[in-house]
Amino acid sequence: MTSEINTTLAQWSELFMYLAAITYTVAFLAFAWDVAANSRATLKAENEAELEPEKELVGAGAPAKARASVKNINSVRVSSTEQGTGARGMGYKKSAEAKLAGHVADSSMRWGTSTERRPAARVAVVVLAIGAVIHLAAVLSRGIAAHRVPWGNMYEFCTTGALIVTAVYLITLIFRDVRFVGVLVSGLAVLMMCAATIGFPTPLGHLKPALQTYWIWIHVSIAVLASGIFTITFAMAILQLLQTKREKAILSGETPKWNFMRLVPSSQALENFSFRLNAVAFVMWTFTIIAGAIWAEKAWGRYWGWDTKEVWSFVIWVVYAAYLHARATRGWSGPRSAWLSIAGYCCILFNFGVVNVFFQGLHSYSGL
Amino acid sequence: MANTEKDAPALGPLGMLRWAWTQLTKMSTAMFLLLMLAVAAVPGSVYPQRIQDPTRVTDYIETHPTWGPIADKLQLFDVFSSFWFAAIYLLLFISLIGCVLPRAKKHWESMRKPPARTPKRLDRLPVHRTLTFPTEESGLSPQQAMEDARAILKKRGYRVDIRTEHGFTSVAAERGYLREIGNILFHTAMIGVLIGVAVGALFGYKGQKILVEGDTHVNSLISYDSFTPGTNYNPDWLEPYSVTLDKFTVEYDRQEDSPSYGDDISYAADLTFTDSKGKDQKQTLKVNEPVRVQGSNLYLSGNGYAPIIKVEDGEGNVAFEGPVVGLPTGDPNYTSSIVLKIPDSSPDQLGFVGMFLPTGDYAATKAPVSIDAAPLNPTLVLQSYYGDLGLDDGTPQNVYVLDTATLNPLNTMAMGNGIVLTEEANQAELPGNRGTITFEGYKRYVGLDVQYDPGQGLVLVSALLVFGGLIISLFVPRRRVWVTAQETQIDGTKAIEVEYGLLARGEDPRLVLEADKLTDIFADRWGLEFGED
């Protein structure tokens, strides 16, 4: 016998979902405020710097040495140098790097490298974390109310997906100062929550027989997690493109626009970091496809049948495979690889939003 | 002779081949082919595909009389078996082989060679460190320091070698040979997936069978409703067994306040298998729980109702009696369409078309509708026709479609004498002494998919190797370390300078951490203490 659905808890879950969406909106606004405030602050700093051009030059050369983990004591002398890693990850030449130094954030993205005070960003992170806790309560209570995984239809994919995006972002924040993508990530989380609550509201029900198997745990959870990481690298790819354009302007001696981009690391650092995230997410996506194929064999009698969802999962896999290869291909790193990352994410959005709702196929679990 | 060569700049056939090979195995070509493959797959989701739903393809061609046939010529309805899709993936696989083979050879050689030559200047390497410390007390010699470094690196999984090049002695170390093996494994296993898919397409089969409760399916070609053998599959190879559907059970959501009230929650088909020796075995078939029988697999792919109908003709003979498979119309309450053709009745052939409603209800509308998926009030709503069914001339017909255009109506909703049969009122007279129809109950039926895919195991193993290879090739770092030591002086006292440089091959974001780790281990070995700056 299937356990009964706890409808009271389900209603609480829906209420918490709205609360989480509102909290995320506040976090988004705070992140946006941070960007705006920094736009002004950096303008001010720039004006001051123009008065004291010498000062900035000194600052420009310094970070390269200061950040190296030099350990020094009376009798032991240690010196160290490091550049980017990987064949294509070397980045700009020292001279170019020095030119960019004041205009982009530290490429290690470690905490404590910048002394700038960003109260709005602090508030944003705290509010986002509070939102995530409320959101977690909402998702968990939905799952508990129905005694099943909370990812059985579009509403649930969206809400769980948004939670994963926020969680991945908050976990990344523990290790790296990636507040610069906050606007984009919290914005996307808000969009996903709106899509769920306005676009695909679905009352809590039992799963269809086809979904009642432990494979939904394995297949869907990893798919949602991978999509969450791809969301963050998508945001980084956009920033990378903007930053590349800006760096070009700076290197050719123009006054850079978009002052808030000063909070964002160099395009090279963004590319390196999102490559690492994308590599992890690609492994997860490969797993999703293999687990999906094993499940498909159990449920539908064939491991692969070019169902629309399968076609698009394949397309996504191929696009990100191309992305991974791009790094080892001459002329394909930099903006082109960012575009591949964006194209891959568009395919994910399409696979999720359009295929689930408008296309006929075996994966029609939208609940609409 | 030399002149003729100069005069012939055109490439010979061999030269052309070599040129084509070089172009094809280029990384940028592989990139291009990969992106082409992604783009080429897209029409497979836009256009209906024959492998999934041939009826939708036929409908599409009928509704698009101009574009439809052209699209068909372009194989847009068979994208994944089209010549252009095959061309792309075959080129891609050739390119892949052309890439992997030389790399495998190169890696095989590099694995048997000592670590790479020491660069002239270690400070040019991406990560470079120097440790300078006095050796008055310890008396550490550069040779000993390098011996220590060699031992430390060896312990950390590096292959090590001490050599003298460019006039100085150094330790060369390299680790992570597995990374390239993973890379080669990943790409080779992709070929395994392709071969597995091909084996399945050549030597497998799939069949469909609708099985009503109490009926038996004998595993032979003639018993299947549809059967698609692989290109090289001989239906004589079908394993002789039979399967009987004893009972099909559906569980419904009966929680009053549940939003999914009335929905199907679970299905279970109780089957009896009889093998060629006549031995019986009972098994339960469920969604997601296929039954494996003698090499092939049985899947529960659908279910529905089959009302039992008895028709007596105008002369009192039983012209038909038995379950009629109703096709669910897609409504969650299992409204199922019924078509019954009775050629053996007199004075006229009879045809019935209508709906079976598991829970018929008049409350909302004039015509009864089904308000629940469970058989709470089984109702049969039919219109009847008489005339020539067109079956006698041998033209094949769809059993689920009745062409009423050439028939004369007997009972229709429009005429106000449509037949509505329930468990209580289960019989109706056909006008003009053409007989009676009786609704005798219902049976459940299941849609069985039977599948045999001998390539499946190879695909699974290859896919797992792809996955393993991918993880290894992305996350096992390939690193080279060179260490050299020489005597020096600090403020006039004897000291030693240990210099080491690290180089990553491929992505290695943790190279700096490795350098830090080495610094710590060296410091530990030589009794150095660092203070915070």
Main attributes?
heterodimer; A: 368 residues; mainly alpha; 10 helices; B: 533 residues; alpha+beta; 3 domains; six-stranded antiparallel beta sheet; 30% helix; elongated; disordered N terminus; Cyt_c_bgen_Ccs1/CcsB/ResB (chain B); Cytochrome c biogenesis protein ResB (chain B)
Give a short synopsis of this structure.
Chain A has 368 residues and is mainly alpha-helical. Chain A has helices spanning 7-51, 53-66, 94-100, 119-146, 154-175, 182-199, 215-251, 267-300, 308-326, 335-358, and one strand spanning 77-82.
How is this fold's topology laid out?
The complex is a heterodimer of chains A (368) and B (533).
Chain A: H1 7-51, H2 53-66, E1 77-82, H3 94-100, H4 119-146, H5 154-175, H6 182-199, H7 215-251, H8 267-300, H9 308-326, H10 335-358
Helix pairs in contact in A: 1-4, 1-6, 4-5, 5-6, 5-7, 7-8, 7-10, 8-9, 9-10
Chain B: H1 2-7, H2 13-24, H3 27-41, H4 43-46, H5 54-63, H6 67-73, H7 83-112, E1 127-134, H8 142-155, E2 159-165, E3 168-175, H9 177-203, E4 205-212, E5 216-218, E6 226-229, E7 242-252, E8 264-274, E9 280-285, E10 291-293, E11 296-313, E12 318-323, E13 327-328, E14 336-342, E15 350-357, E16 360-361, E17 369-370, E18 379-386, E19 408-411, E20 419-421, E21 427-430, E22 435-452, H10 456-475, E23 478-490, E24 493-505, H11 511-525
Antiparallel strand pairs in B: 1-24, 2-3, 3-23, 4-6, 4-22, 5-7, 7-8, 8-9, 10-11, 11-12, 11-22, 13-14, 14-15, 15-18, 16-17, 18-19, 18-20, 21-22, 23-24
